[in-house]
Amino acid sequence: MKKIRFILCLLVFCFIMTACGNKKESAADQDFNGKTKQELQGSSEKLLNELIEIPDEELNNYLKSNDKLTIELVESWIKIKDKVGKRVGIEKFEVSESGHNVTTILTENFEKKPVTLTITYNSKMEVKSQNTDIVYTKSEIIEKAFLNILMILGIVFSVLIIISIIISFFGLIPKIQNVLKKDTDIDDIIIEQETVVIKEELNLVDDLELVAVISAAIAASTGTSIDSFVVRTIKRRNNKWQKA
């Protein structure tokens, strides 16, 4: 009886192992729009190798290409290449499907940071997008998020301070208007004073001319010189002939 149980357990174990092996083989041989996982991994590794081997002085030449996918890939690599160091080796390769699209993620270890090469294919297995990026740890992601929050808060507080300063200037507008009004009143007073002075000067000029005429008439009638007498006052007398 014990032997029979042992044989049954052994058969069940063999069946389970066989099923697991078939699942692994089926996952490895799974078809992704006509491509296997191994083929997709080979394409990703080849593309990353070619990208890494491009000399630094030639990278900018690829940015002048008319191919948007090439520009996208090279730009992403230029941003991170100095932060990751030298290549160490492959870590893992993942394939996922979303509708008719297939996305592959090749993760490779570098000296400083792991790097991912992400490629998205359409239903015809034509490349839709491709880019590289750094794999950050959870602590680094939290730190970046915290810094972003601080930056946003700083911007918000700066805007609020600027708005409060602008509002405070509104209270100065009436004061400035009052000062300008006072300056206008002072200018009007100065103009009036200047007008009075000018009138007085004109009256004085008229009196001097009148004195000169009278002095000349007296000198002519008496036969004397103007220097021999002084006109001190001039009084107007009523003309009887005009009244008549």
From TrEMBL:
Signal peptide (from-to): 1-19
GO terms (BP aspect): sodium ion export across plasma membrane
GO MF annotation, one: sodium ion transmembrane transporter activity
InterPro entries listed in its UniProt record: Na_pump_deCOase (IPR005899)
A GO CC annotation given for this chain: plasma membrane
Pfam families for the chain: OAD_gamma
Keywords: Cell membrane, Membrane, Signal, Transmembrane, Transmembrane helix
Localisation: Cell membrane
Ranges annotated as spanning the membrane: 145-173
Name the UniProt record assigns to this protein: Uncharacterized protein
The species this protein was found in: Anaerosacchariphilus polymeriproducens
